[in-house]
Design goal:
It contains 24 helices and eight strands. The protein has 497 residues and is α/β, with parallel strands linked by helices. It has an eight-stranded mixed sheet with strand order 3-2-4-1-5-6-7-8, with helices on both faces. Helix 8 runs parallel beside helix 9 and helix 14 runs antiparallel to helix 22. The chain starts with a helix and ends with a helix.
Length: 497
């Protein structure tokens, strides 16, 4: 999300930071472009206008225009104002899931992804918060809606309320409340019915359910692709039902992100989560400061550390760290790296989280560095025997033909993979001999090995991020968390930046 806005703003601020002293006219010209970029990103006119006015008031003062680094100070002001727009006057409180069983009411229009989001959130509460969750579908209108939630529940290992045909939404809600109390559940989630548009029947039903269970949280699920209409839907639901937060879905398919930028300013309600794909773990908490950083191309190192921690086993990471420190790197190691990159969001997702790399995503895509390339490389490695993976030097002409045919690809593609592997292996050896790899891994992993981010304070998180940045600085473009590397061919693109 925000790719278009990030690209436009990146161009504006590149020009600003390259200039020396800034006049008020320079700032005004840049901010006119910022306003246009916001409107093109589908940010509402009042929000864009107020945003630019606040930035202009702060950026045209003597302290900025006479500063040694005025361009960078303007970027910082824009960053701080973006955080303010996204977060409101204060950070969003954590979900109220105390005093069990806590009812969570999920509301929204039909087609917004409400049922899938209910399951994603239930999985998150179970795995990250250690909560025992019960899900119940109150959608008596849409065919197979209850069965859909039941199937999702089985997939993620979360209980669903048994289906009893002929009950009303309120009756199901009351039965879920009773079952949650008797069954010792911490949270019960009520997936309400939706309509194609807001009408009295929909609102009456949701209000009746709300009154029956008195939910701790009422989360509105809206499709981020609908742009400003999502903001209008949120305003309507809040006025008639009362919502405590918003979940924006399909944000992975929206390069504009205007709904996210307008939502808090217009409705006053926090964005709790964003859906970034169809998979059950593709739900992320909405962190305004990190989102602002990614919009401005500053990356999100802390998110990168967290993703690596979620998808990498501690023992596996330590084992790889020891191998890399010795300069060992075979095809099994490379396959592990490629699998890891896909798990962490693919090429585009990773580049978006690396500082200064957000603007490279399109160039990488155009040059063929994308998730399809990663999957083709994995297919080639899968076509190798165990001996070939452990010792790629065995690969001569006849073996190459067999491997390429087994993956359904050309030998030329296999040769590119082997060249990439040699480059990466050579770098590992050089860094291993010089002790650079050991130092980099120490910076990234810390003295105690894998850091437990959930127990860190904000200051400690920033220290971890700093350690990663220092670890990465010695090994471009290979510096990724816990030994994870980018394809060697990306170095040429980075030099062209």
């Amino acid at each position: 999300m925000f790719e278009n806005l990030s690209e436009r703003l990146g161009g504006v601020f590149d020009r600003l930071t390259k200039q020396g002293a800034l006049s008020e006219a320079d700032v005004a010209t840049a901010l006119r472009e910022v306003r246009t970029a916001l409107l093109e990103a589908d940010v509402s006119l009042p929000v864009a206008r107020d945003f630019v006015k606040r930035v202009q008031d702060k950026a045209t003062g003597q302290a900025v225009t006479k500063s040694v680094t005025p361009g960078q100070q303007v970027v910082k002001i824009v960053h701080d104002e973006l955080v303010h727009v996204l977060a409101g006057d204060g950070p969003a409180d954590a979900l109220k899931i105390d005093n069990p069983p806590s009812p969570l009411l999920m509301v929204g229009l039909q087609g917004s992804g409400k049922t899938t989001t209910t399951a994603k959130l239930a999985k998150r509460l179970k795995e990250k918060n250690g909560k025992r969750v019960l899900m119940a579908s109150l959608d008596t209108n849409r065919p197979a809606a209850m069965e859909q939630l039941q199937i999702l529940g089985a997939q993620i290992g979360v209980d669903t309320l048994p289906i009893v045909k002929g009950e009303t939404a309120v009756q199901i809600a009351k039965r879920a409340k009773t079952q949650a109390s008797l069954g010792g559940y911490d949270v019960y989630m009520l997936d309400t019915a939706g309509r194609l548009h807001i009408d009295e029947v929909l609102m009456d039903e949701v209000q009746a359910v709300r009154d029956a269970v008195n939910p701790r949280e009422t989360l509105l699920v809206v499709d981020g692709l609908t742009g400003q209409d999502a903001v209008n839907v949120a305003t309507e639901f809040d006025g008639k039902v009362g919502i405590t937060g918003v979940v924006l879905t399909r944000m992975d398919g929206d390069g504009r992100g205007g709904a996210a930028l307008s939502m808090r300013a217009v409705t006053g309600k926090p964005i709790r989560f964003v859906g970034l794909g169809e998979k059950m773990d593709a739900l992320e908490t909405f962190e305004p400061d990190r989102v602002a950083g990614r919009i401005l191309g500053m990356g999100d190192i802390v998110a990168l550390v967290e993703k690596a921690q979620e998808t990498f086993e501690a023992e596996q990471a330590e084992r790889m760290a020891k191998r890399f420190a010795k300069g060992l790197f075979n095809m099994n190691d490379l396959k592990m790296q490629l699998d890891q990159m896909l798990k962490m969001g693919g090429m585009q997702g990773l580049m978006g989280m690396l500082p200064g790399m957000g603007g490279m995503a399109k160039k990488a895509e155009e040059a063929g560095f994308n998730d399809k390339m990663l999957r083709r490389q994995i297919a080639l490695i899968n076509s190798m025997t165990k001996k070939e993976r452990a010792n790629p030097d065995l690969l001569q002409a006849s073996r190459k033909k067999r491997i390429a045919a087994g993956a359904g690809l050309d030998v030329a593609e296999l040769n590119r993979l082997l060249k990439q592997h040699r480059q990466m292996a050579d770098m590992m050896k050089k860094m291993g001999k010089g002790g650079m790899m050991k130092q980099a891994l120490k910076s990234m992993l810390g003295k105690g090995g894998m850091p437990d981010l959930s127990k860190m304070s904000p200051a400690e998180l920033e220290e971890t991020a700093k350690g990663m940045r220092e670890g990465m600085s010695g090994m471009p473009p290979m510096g990724m968390p816990r030994g994870l590397t980018l394809p060697a061919g990306l170095s040429g693109l980075m030099k062209k930046k």
